Amino acid sequence: SSTAFAACESHLQGEYRKLHSTDSVNLCSLVENKVTLVVNTASHCGFTKQFKGLEALHKKYKDKGLVIVGFASDDFNQEDKDEGNAAGICFKNFGVTFTMLAPTHVKGDEANTLFKYLNAESGEPKWNFNKYLVGKDGKVIQHFGSMTEPSATSLTKAIDEALAK
Length: 165
Fold this sequence. Notes:
By secondary structure, the protein is of the alpha/beta class.
């Protein structure tokens, strides 16, 4: 499958460790030919309840070609310092089954490769739970801020349109 990797956009290349795990995920393989919703998350944020809505989106759209990827981040000082606690909040409290990745930087010079691209294309996250809708071609379709709930019509409409392409 070297052709799949050759076709993968450079900002999607790389292995990221899963939250509270020694396992890692290859982003290119995960999102290949899929519409992707990338979210910067934190376990102790006023928007943490959005995990519930993101999981509902995941359940609704996963068989239609949407992948949701949560990037835990402490860039806004809201992430639990203990990855086990952070994982408990995601997986136990909110029943998250979509891919959650270990804490990484999402803004500034230390941002991971994907977020450097997202930030350049559509702006750095100003807070946790920014949502970046990325098309099957790996390009940003739209950036939604923290205040946009996962169930917001603007977001679900954009997802439906991206999946229809």
